[in-house]
Design a protein that fits this description.
By secondary structure, the chain is α/β, with parallel strands linked by helices. The chain has three domains: 6-293, 2-enoyl-CoA Hydratase, Chain A, domain 1; 329-508, NAD(P)-binding Rossmann-like Domain (Rossmann fold), CATH 3.40.50.720; 513-726, N-(1-d-carboxylethyl)-l-norvaline Dehydrogenase, domain 2. Helix content is 49%, strand content 11%. The chain contains 30 helices and 19 strands. The protein has an eight-stranded mixed sheet with strand order 12-11-10-13-14-15-16-17, sandwiched between helices. A six-stranded mixed sheet has the order 1-2-3-4-6-9, with helices on both faces. The radius of gyration is 28 Å and the shape is globular.
Length: 737
């Protein structure tokens, strides 16, 4: 029998090599068709007496990243359709549907013939769950091999046997840590946890897998053997008596109770280890059915899985523009930001010219890039040879003429209009016709900067976030005259350096910084009201923010916040800034000389390591303090999330953001907006626009007019709209009356 996605070759020893290699796909993924073919292969293997065992591997450089977008979408479509069509039986049908993969893997496990998974690259989610159902597991020791069950990061959990097999192979504590954090494992770590049997050289992967079968690998899982006990003895042991009472508390400390899927993992493991394996699978299936119906799962999968993949694949790339081949990039400004941009560009294999005012300044930038390489080599992320090659792609020079054959030039100089004007003129004097100029400005409008350009159609903003090598997001900003070619080149470049782009129209602060500034401004209001600083920080974390606003302000630099406030007053007038905010920040900078982490003094104190930072003790003395019992932490949480979401809604109303996917993905990747909500606009949609408007009106009455809902929100509330309904990113945009 022939298959579309698999080849099956049986050798003289009766071992079938099943190779998964989907046509027209860069990575193998699970689809309904793939599942059907796997089931057919299992049936064929069982029926053929000549086949003694199976080695399952990938024909691509990676093994599999898990489920396909269409399969994920289908799961949520099924939820909605069944609720509408047959509400009485909807949950049962969903239960049956989500269990298909789990019971197919169980069919492999109990088919009576040994299966060995030969893992040759990235093996994630359902693919690793399939591997766990095989009787033997061998992994290549190549650096590209990454193993994990990352489902919790998108609001669900390993629902195809993962919560039952992992704690029956590894000890419960390691199993919980792996699954509740979505941890990625190197092959050696997976072997140490007893999740795989052997780690071998890449060229020995298939021979070793076949040898396991030749050596008499039993076609029976350990938990199907009589007398099986989980590592550590299971639930009712002294060690478990220490683990399980503490586990929910530890999880709550880490997640603030915002992630239902993480708690479901604990329940699946705890309950599943007390019953026979098949019953454990049913328990897992029951919890998965429950979790997949939550708004957290829906919103997180939509934003962090579906939308991210769509944006990464060029959802906003203009049609009709040929793919650009970027052979050389120039970066002007060799400070930390410019040097980091040069590093990620060279890491993508693109030659870079790093320019500054003189050779000494340019060489300092090259040294920053070289240190990033040294750190990556030290952590095993790069080989020494690859690191040397990367540094070799960066040329540090003060000579602008080296840009004469660049395809793209990015300026990353000081945030000063006159400085940027001088750079634009110097670059354009040598830049070839058709090349693109991009500004990495974080606040200055692109349209204004483009007035200094002789070719504004080729002028665009590419806003990176620090640290560049770690932050996944890049904002691409369109000036009023930016052309389609400039946008296409910018998006092709962002794809080449493996960042996620969002495309926004021009405004002061663009999208991310506008939202971040609202977050920090709300913390200023709370300080002025006398809310204890520790409560401010903790409330933000309880709301789902990764970093409290005061800590974030220290990282950004308080003196930079001061400059932004002063620039806003200069451009828009004094009414554009809350005078009490200006007074607070001015005092921190001018009187207290507290600039943030960079000078070791901000809203926090930064003692020498290994001591941890702590809130500046005198901060509480700046304003009369409220008693902690008089502060409603829930309201603080609502204020933080609502003020950011309101700002995101304003950017949509102003036409700055036209695609809700970008607001959601940008808010999560840009500054960590409560990922369990699915992003700033999904937070509103998930609550219901009508309920959000009511919350904002209540907050506006108590905490100020900046919480007042906008006309767009009021109109949407009245009409029962959602952001993904009215601003449909797939083209069916409803006309706003």
């Amino acid at each position: 029998m022939t298959y579309k996605n698999f080849t099956v070759e049986t050798d003289a020893d009766g071992i079938a090599l099943v190779t998964w290699d989907m046509p027209d796909k860069s990575m193998n993924v699970f689809t309904v068709g793939v599942m059907d073919e796997i089931e057919a292969i299992v049936d064929a293997v069982v029926a053929d007496e000549a086949i003694k065992g199976v080695v399952f591997t990938s024909g691509k450089s990676s093994f599999s990243g898990g489920a396909d977008l269409s399969m994920i979408r289908g799961m949520f479509s099924m939820v909605e359709e069944e609720r509408t069509k047959d509400p009485a039986n909807a949950v049962q049908k969903l239960f049956d549907g989500v269990g298909r993969m789990s019971w197919l893997w169980r069919k492999i496990e109990t088919c009576g013939k040994p299966w060995v998974s030969a893992i040759n690259g990235t093996c994630m989610g359902g693919a690793f769950e399939l591997s766990l159902a095989c009787h033997g597991r061998v992994a290549s020791n190549a650096k590209s091999v990454k193993i994990g069950l990352p489902e919790v990061k998108v609001g669900i959990f390993p629902g195809a046997g993962g919560t039952q097999r992992v704690p029956r192979l590894a000890n419960a504590q390691d199993a919980l840590q792996m699954m509740t954090t979505g941890q990625t494992l190197a092959p050696q770590r997976a072997k140490a946890m007893n999740l795989i049997h052997q780690v071998v050289e890449p060229d020995q992967l298939i021979p070793t897998a076949k040898q396991m079968i030749k050596d008499g690998l039993k076609p029976v899982a350990p938990w199907d053997e009589k007398g099986f006990k989980a590592p550590g003895g299971g639930i009712w042991t002294p060690a478990s008596a220490q683990l399980w009472p503490a586990a929910p508390a530890v999880l709550r400390r880490e997640t603030s109770g915002n992630y239902p899927a993480a708690l479901a993992i604990l329940k699946c493991v705890y309950e599943g280890l007390q019953v026979p394996f098949d019953t454990g699978l049913r328990i897992e299936q029951r919890y998965f059915t429950e979790i997949v119906q939550t708004k957290e799962a829906f919103s997180m999968i939509r934003s962090l899985f579906i939308s991210m993949q769509e944006l990464n694949k060029g959802a906003r790339r203009p049609a009709g523009q040929p793919k650009s081949e970027i052979k050389k990039v120039g970066v002007v400004g060799a400070g930390f930001m410019g040097a980091s941009i040069a590093y990620v560009t060279a890491a993508a294999g693109i030659p870079v010219v790093l320019i500054d005012r003189d050779q000494e300044a340019a060489d300092k930038g090259l040294a920053v890039s070289a240190k990033l390489v040294t750190d990556a080599v030290g952590k095993g992320k790069l080989t020494k040879e690859a690191g040397e090659k990367l540094v070799g792609l960066i040329t540090a020079t003060p000579d602008y003429s080296t840009l004469a054959d660049a395809d793209l030039v990015i300026e990353a100089v000081f945030e000063d209009r006159d400085v940027k004007k001088a750079v634009i003129e110097k670059v354009e004097a040598v830049l070839p016709e058709g090349a693109i100029f991009a500004s990495n400005t974080s606040t200055l409008p692109i349209t204004g900067l483009a007035k200094n350009s002789k070719r504004p159609a080729d002028f665009i903003g590419i806003h990176f976030f620090s640290p560049v090598e770690k932050m996944m997001l890049t904002e691409v900003i369109l000036g009023k005259e930016t052309g389609d070619k400039a946008l296409a080149v910018a998006l092709d470049y962002v794809a080449a350096i493996k960042k996620t782009p969002i495309v926004v129209n021009d405004t002061r602060g663009f999208f991310v910084n506008r939202c971040v500034l609202r977050y920090m401004a709300e913390s200023y209001d709370m300080l002025i009201e006398g809310v204890p600083p520790v409560m401010i920080e903790n409330a933000a974390k309880f709301a789902g923010m990764p970093v409290g606003p005061l800590s974030l302000n220290d990282e950004v630099a308080i003196d930079l916040s001061y400059k932004i406030l002063k620039a806003t007053v200069a451009d828009l007038g004094e009414k554009a800034v809350n005078p009490r905010h200006m007074e607070l920040v001015a005092r921190m900078v001018e009187k207290e000389e507290r600039f943030g982490r960079k000078n070791g003094k901000g809203f926090y104190e930064y003692p020498a390591k290994p001591a941890k930072k702590f809130i500046w003790p005198d901060l509480k003395d700046l304003y009369p303090q409220k008693k902690a019992d008089d502060v409603d932490v829930k309201v603080l949480q609502q204020r933080f999330l609502a003020t950011i979401a309101l700002e995101a809604a304003r950017t949509v109303e102003e036409g700055i953001v036209i695609d809700p996917r970008e607001a959601d993905v940008g808010s999560i990747l840009g500054f960590g907006f409560a990922p369990y909500t699915g992003g700033a606009l999904s937070y509103i949609d998930g609550m219901g626009v009508k309920n959000f408007v009511a919350l904002c009106e209540k907050l506006a009455g108590e905490y100020g007019p900046h919480f007042a809902p906008t006309p767009l929100l009021k109109d949407m509330a009245e009409k029962g709209d959602t952001f993904y309904g009215r601003f449909d990113p797939y083209g069916a945009v409803k006309a706003a009356a």
